[in-house]
Amino acid sequence: MLARLAAVRSRSPAESPFFIAALGVLMSFGPMGTDMYLPGMPAIGRDLHVPQDQVQWTLSAFFLGFGLGQLLWGALGDRFGRRLPVATGILLYAVGCVGCSLTTDITHLAAWRFVQAVGACAGPVLVRAMIRDVFQRDRAASVLSMMMLVMGAAPIIAPLIGGQILIWANWRWIFWAQAAFGLIALLALASLPETHPPARRGSLRPMVLLGSYRTLLTDRRYLGYAVGSSFIYAGMFAFISGSPFVYIDLFGVRPENYGFLFGLNIVGMIIINTINSRAVMRFGSDVMLRMGVWLSAASGILLVACVSGGWGGLWGLVGCLFLFMALTGFCFANSMAGALQSFPQIAGTASALAGMLQFSSGALSGWVVGVMADGTAMPMAAVIGGAALVSLALNLWLVRPVRRIQAAE
């Protein structure tokens, strides 16, 4: 077994048959950390005697920790390589899982969710850097889309697991199941080679880090990709935050069946990511991203109209959410590939900053949905539609058309 792992590490990462699959597992910390406990959110509120908005603190705390923690792991990944920081993050994630399972009040649950998220984000932020280490821009966008097909199983399986656990046990056992996923992730990490050689590693000196962030934050196109995609994330996390209460409390969906409705959206994302992985090699990532934000904005407007008019009841809502969530498959991979393209020496830092913006916007959108909660689906729909329109505006403003760039070059 050790000889096989050594042989895998000695090969080029692009040639390894386990490379994409293992990266997909490490990228799954986000959906596994959020989606598995979504069916249990109403039960958590009842058990801890708190209203919906306070239960959503735990989700916002996870998003905030997942976003801010990426700044730490991105810098460590550029200095010490990719594998060691990921392993450290997985161990911290496991500690957070245990803390969540043992807590007795909502404040400590939110705090342990923050710790859990800080550890969990090491995997996704450095996986994106690994892909930039190995692949160039359009190929990186294609690989990111293919990897999302691998990790696409997580958002389908996670809420189903959470719902089934609630049939046999209480919500605390969901966090023990999340800890078990950490062990699986460690095994996946063991099969991966180090993609960031010592000769390319940077420094942790504060002035060097500040210089890196200044470079990123003053780059127009980087901001267009990173900030623009963060608003699509805000729309997605508004759905994640609001849908358990809309589906279970408003429409009476049983908690064990919530995962099936949630999984429909992931099927749509898998389909669109499959299309994107092929189309991006022909049309380029900028073209596919521009099309994606236009369609996402249109689907957000349709969702608001559907909810305000009451069209189709539950299934009308499910259909509109399916459309919006599926179309994110044109946005995430292409925006991340564009953001990382120009910064190979600080790919970890660039990935971390983009991820921080995405998950911080997710934390904010989840909080807004909770504050606006009025017993209807409108707060969730309004945040999704508004976020999609802002993403479109930022893409049109900051990301110049592809043809103009090529002409300038």
Assigned CATH class: Mainly Alpha
- What CATH calls the topology is Growth Hormone, Chain: A
What order do the helices and strands follow?
Answer: HHHHHHHHHHHHHHHHHHHH
Corresponding CATH architecture = Up-down Bundle
Q: How far is the N terminus from the C terminus?
A: 50 Å
- Tell me the Rg in angstroms: 20 Å
Structural class assignment: mainly alpha
CATH superfamily: MFS general substrate transporter like domains
Uncertain stretches: 7-11, 403-409
User: Major sheet: size, sense and barrel closure?
Assistant: none
Q: How does the overall form come out from the CA principal axes? A: globular
Give the averaged pLDDT, no decimals.
Answer: 82
Strand content: under 5%
Helix content: over 70%
Secondary structure: number of strands: 0
Count of domains: 1
Write up this protein:
- α4 packs across α5, α13 packs antiparallel against α17 and α14 runs antiparallel to α15 (285-309).
- By secondary structure, the protein is mainly α.
- 82% of the residues lie in helices and 0% in strands.
- The chain starts with a helix and ends with a helix.
- It has one domain (15-192, 203-399): Growth Hormone, Chain: A.
Brief characterization of the structure:
It contains 20 helices and no strands.
Defining traits:
mainly alpha; membrane; 409 residues; transmembrane helix; Growth Hormone, Chain: A
Describe the secondary-structure layout:
Layout: H1 2-10, H2 19-27, H3 29-34, H4 41-48, H5 52-80, H6 83-102, H7 106-120, H8 122-134, H9 137-151, H10 153-168, H11 172-190, H12 206-217, H13 220-250, H14 255-283, H15 285-309, H16 313-327, H17 332-341, H18 347-372, H19 378-398, H20 402-408
Helix pairs in contact: 2-9, 2-11, 4-5, 5-6, 5-7, 5-8, 5-18, 6-7, 6-11, 8-9, 8-18, 9-14, 9-17, 10-14, 13-17, 13-18, 13-19, 14-15, 14-16, 15-16, 15-17, 15-19, 17-18
